[in-house]
Write a structure and sequence with these properties.
By secondary structure, the protein is α+β, with helices and mostly antiparallel strands. It is 45% helix and 26% strand. It contains 26 helices and 27 strands. The strands form six sheets. A five-stranded antiparallel sheet has the order 2-1-5-4-3. The protein has a five-stranded antiparallel sheet with strand order 7-6-10-9-8, with helices on both faces. It has a five-stranded antiparallel sheet with strand order 12-11-15-14-13, sandwiched between helices. α20 packs antiparallel against α21, α22 packs parallel to α23 and α23 runs antiparallel to α25. The radius of gyration is 69 Å and the shape is elongated. Bound molecules: adenosine-5'-diphosphate. The site of adenosine-5'-diphosphate has 21 residues, from α23 and α25.
Length: 798
């Protein structure tokens, strides 16, 4: 009964408690819903008390258990009898070591100082430990504490699983903390919630990032795509539980971006809030390697595309898999029309097919051919000579999948080689057949090569000559010259031709002319090529001509001396003849008949000619011997020309020829021997009158330029043939000796003129066209006359 009473008290308390305790309230609510009536009965609470899974125990003020429910005996494995009336500390539930502590706790509870909830480790009857949670409250009767109510729940399992959870969390955290992968948890508003320590590789500390906007580290170009991905993730477009994989770039502390590959998942945190978990891997290096690979691939592709070489891929059957644009260019075929076709029958001339197929088979068996030359036939039927280099093609597993062939179009090279061979042959023939000796010597002078002509020139056979030193065929007195020439070649300079001698095998000496060039090999001088010509004959004829010239000179001298002396000797008798004739004509010595007068006039004319001739010969000899006297004086050119015209006017009038004069005003006075220059001009004007027709015109011009005064006498007479225009300045030369002599000249006037103009450093020449006329021109340098003037000035001062 006591128990019953006590139980009913407990039930009452439970009833009061039901609004406070969630667990009890729920359990009771269920019952309330279904058994409303029963609920209010005493029976209901008793039932509840007995069937509740929590142990309910009451303890009196002295610590003795006064009541307990079924759960109490089943949790602790003691029967109700074992428990009722026993002191709570002595049953064996409280571990011996904890007894003093709980006695103190019990006393404190009774004093109203204890807490409400205790987590205690207790033992059951079998000695197995349980973690229990005890809710302690005081039992009061008539406002006086009469005992303690302990509602105890076995929380061993809950505790265990919580511990396990903590353990597993610890484990995961450990993994997260130690992995190289970057684990990031962000809130859905993108703030960092958790960053694993691997972020340190970017120079950050996880702590400094927590709470910050994760997008602040993101590459600006990635923000849009990541935002989109997160939105998709959040609105659930990614199937639940499915990872979304993506790439992004994070900025490290120094500002450099690193590429990451991440998987992201929307997960719930402990509080059930959605967070974004991403596990990222730094793929910067991987990316770099990938980019490098791509670059290499692009590079290789562009080489293949632009290479001026054929790149051809055949499969194991010899069918065309691929070829590059260069092959398209050379062959005229497009790759698309040739892919899959048999290489050998499509491109090779029949005669080559078998041989090339063999080489192809070899290539498939890893035996590569290098530099094989064969032709391919192009679309327009032409043949191109190709030099091939092939290589076995294998797949990643090492299986042979075909042959790669690189071809160089050598058609032009072959042609050039042929031309070179031909030209080499031509030059070899030339070298061998030339009459000049061609010898190649090394830097010590030893013969390395000699042509046939060398044999004839030196008398030594080729086998004797090659290896011999050139000293042996060089006479001793020519050694210094030859040594100097060799030194020149050693310095890389050409040896200019010089005269030398060769001592033949038979001892004869040959006059030769020798020259040469250094021979280079790989930029170094290794020898000298010497070309030698036998000039003995030329020397002999030169000698002959020299002798003849001396002879002629002697004769010329004799002639000049003769003319000179005779002229001198003739001068006096001619002068006296002229004097007497003139006296006779003036009839000072008596009257003469008309016939006698005529005869005397003829004699006088011829004596004048003779006198003229003598004067000319004397002038020439004076000019040639340099004994002609030039007396310089300041000369007014206009005045001088006027005087000349006055002299010539009678002759001009006879032929009714008009003489026009045009003298440039600016012409300065010249310091010249007026009489000599007059002599030149008179001779030219005299010729112009002689060789012009009656009633024609003669123009005289005088102009000045920077350096010269130019005189010109222009006639419109018979002209002079081009070939003879230079010759008329030679001694005694006349264009038409027969006719011209009749005019009274002897062909010395222009020679004298030239000598005079030469003396002044000027030039004299003629421009003439046959039957149209001639222009005789001569120049006098201004400078010379200026110098003379200066000299004169000095003399005057002195
Ligand atoms: P010559 O005393 O014979 O005139 P030159 O030396 O003065 O000797 O002239 C040589 C020759 O040049 C003349 O004989 C004449 O054949 C030719 N010759 C000179 N001047 C003229 C000219 N103005 N027209 C044609 N022939 C000329």
């Amino acid at each position: 009964m006591v128990h019953m009473n006590k139980e009913s008290n407990i039930v009452k308390m439970l009833r009061k408690k039901k609004k406070r305790s969630g667990i009890i309230f729920q359990d009771i609510t269920d019952k309330i819903k279904t058994e409303e009536q029963f609920e209010n009965s005493e029976e209901f609470y008793k039932n509840l008390y007995e069937h509740i899974p929590d142990s309910i125990v009451t303890i009196n003020l002295k610590g003795y258990i006064t009541s307990c429910n079924t759960a109490a005996s089943s949790i602790f494995k003691y029967s109700k009898n074992d428990l009722l009336g026993k002191h709570f500390s002595k049953i064996g539930i409280i571990r011996v070591k904890d007894i003093p502590k709980y006695l103190r706790v019990f006393a404190a509870i009774l004093r109203g100082k204890g807490t409400n909830l205790y987590e205690i480790t207790v033992n059951d009857r079998d000695g197995i430990s349980h973690i229990v949670e005890s809710h302690i409250s005081l039992i009061k009767k008539n406002n006086k504490i009469s005992g303690v109510l302990a509602i105890t729940r076995d929380i061993t399992d809950r505790k265990k699983s919580k511990e396990e959870l903590i353990e597993s969390q610890k484990r995961y955290r450990l993994i997260a903390e130690n992995t190289n992968d970057l684990i990031i948890i962000t809130d859905t508003d993108k703030t960092f919630r958790y960053v694993s320590p691997s972020i340190k590789s970017l120079g950050y500390n996880p702590d400094e990032l927590i709470g910050k906007d994760s997008f602040s580290l993101l590459h600006p170009k990635d923000k849009k795509s990541i935002t989109f991905m997160l939105k998709q993730l959040i609105i659930g477009l990614y199937k639940p539980g499915m990872n979304s994989c993506f790439e992004y770039r994070l900025r490290d502390k120094s500002g450099i971006y690193h590429s990451f590959e991440a998987t992201t998942k929307l997960v719930k945190d402990e509080s059930g809030k959605h967070v974004i978990l991403s596990i990222s891997r730094d793929i910067t290096e991987q990316k770099k390697a990938k980019e490098m690979l791509q670059y290499e691939k692009d590079f290789a592709e562009s080489i293949i595309k632009t290479a001026q070489a054929i790149v051809l891929v055949l499969d194991t059957q010899g069918c065309i898999v691929n070829f590059n644009p260069y092959m398209e260019e050379i062959s005229g075929y497009a790759l698309t029309e040739m892919q899959g076709k048999d290489w050998f029958t499509t491109f090779l001339p029949k005669c080559d097919r078998k041989h090339i197929r063999n080489l192809f088979q070899k290539a498939l068996n890893n035996i590569q051919t290098r530099g094989n030359m064969n032709s391919i036939v192009t679309k327009n039927g032409h043949k191109r000579e190709i030099e091939w280099y092939d290589k076995t093609l294998k797949d990643a597993q090492g299986n042979v999948v075909g042959v790669l062939a690189i071809g160089q179009d050598s058609t032009e090279r072959k042609l050039m080689e042929k031309e070179l061979r031909q030209s080499e042959e031509k030059y070899r023939n030339l070298i061998q057949n030339t009459k000049d000796s061609i010898v190649i010597i090394d830097l010590k002078g030893c013969v390395k090569f000699a042509n046939k002509a060398s044999e004839q020139m030196t008398g030594y056979t080729l086998s004797e000559g090659v290896g011999m030193n050139v000293k042996k065929i060089t006479p001793f007195n020519y050694w210094p010259k030859s040594y100097k020439a060799l030194q020149k070649a050693k310095k890389g300079e050409d040896i200019p031709y010089f005269e030398s001698e060769i001592k033949r095998k038979d001892g004869k000496i040959l006059q030769v002319e020798t020259g040469g060039q250094p021979i280079l090999k790989d930029g170094k001088i290794v020898g000298v090529q010497i070309i030698t010509r036998d000039i003995t004959e030329r020397k002999n004829s030169e000698e002959k001509i020299k002798k003849q010239n001396t002879q002629l000179k002697k004769l010329d001298n004799i002639k000049t001396n003769f003319l000179n002396t005779t002229s001198h000797e003739l001068r006096t008798p001619v002068a006296s003849i002229k004097g007497y004739i003139q006296m006779l004509l003036k009839q000072t010595l008596g009257e003469i008949t008309i016939e006698q007068k005529k005869a005397l006039e003829v004699i006088l004319r011829n004596t004048n000619r003779l006198d003229n001739l003598i004067e000319n010969i004397l002038d020439i000899s004076r000019l040639e011997s340099g004994t002609m006297k030039f007396i310089p004086e300041k000369t007014d050119i206009t005045k001088m020309i006027k005087e000349i015209i006055e002299t010539m006017q009678i002759m001009a009038d006879l032929k009714k020829i008009k003489i026009d004069v045009d003298i440039q005003k600016e012409i300065p006075d010249l310091i010249i021997d007026q009489e000599r220059i007059k002599q030149v001009l008179i001779n030219i004007v005299d010729n112009a009158l002689k060789f012009s027709a009656n009633n024609s015109i003669i123009n005289i011009y005088a102009t000045v330029n920077k350096n010269n005064v130019l005189f010109e006498v222009q006639d419109f007479g018979r002209g002079i043939p081009i070939k003879k225009q230079k010759k008329i300045f030679e001694k005694f030369y006349q264009v038409d000796a027969g006719t011209d002599r009749k005019f009274g000249g002897v062909g010395l006037g222009l020679t004298i003129s030239k000598e005079i103009i030469d003396f002044y450093g000027g030039q004299i020449w003629v421009d003439s066209t046959i039957n149209k006329g001639s222009s005789f021109k001569f120049s006098l340098p201004l400078q010379t006359t200026k110098d003379i003037e200066d000299d004169l000035q000095k003399i005057y001062v002195a």
